[in-house]
Specification:
The chain is of the alpha+beta class and about 90 residues long. The chain has helices at about 10-20, 50-90; strands at about 1-5, 25-30, 35-45. It has a single domain, classed as GMP Synthetase, Chain A, domain 3, CATH 3.30.300. Helix 1 crosses helix 2. It is elongated. This is His-Xaa-Ser system protein HxsD.
């Protein structure tokens, strides 16, 4: 099964994370062109789940991983501020 993704919608990092989450069920080979991120998907030997169901779950995982990256970026300034404040109170500074 070949899945072509728009790189303006999904980043390679998100696709790699989704593929890793499915490593026990799907063999995923990734490649990229200027226009697409290409996923070649194959069911791992011994897995009984139909490819259509695995593909549906994989697509949901892709969206989840992409949104996690976006949220991480959007909340980075607040997270950094909280960490800076927490470490400023420890006396660990040189």
């Amino acid at each position: 099964m070949r899945l072509e993704l728009d790189p303006t919608v999904y980043r390679m990092e998100a696709v790699q994370k989704a593929a890793y989450r499915f490593i026990d069920r799907l063999a995923v080979v990734l490649s990229a062109t200027q226009r697409h991120i290409v996923c070649e998907l194959e069911v791992v030997a011994g897995v009984k789940t139909p490819l259509e169901l695995l593909l549906s779950d994989f697509k949901r995982e892709l969206l989840d991983q992409q949104l996690r990256l976006q949220i991480k970026e959007e909340t980075a300034p607040v997270r950094d501020l909280v960490l800076a404040y927490a470490f400023s109170r420890t006396g660990l500074q040189g």
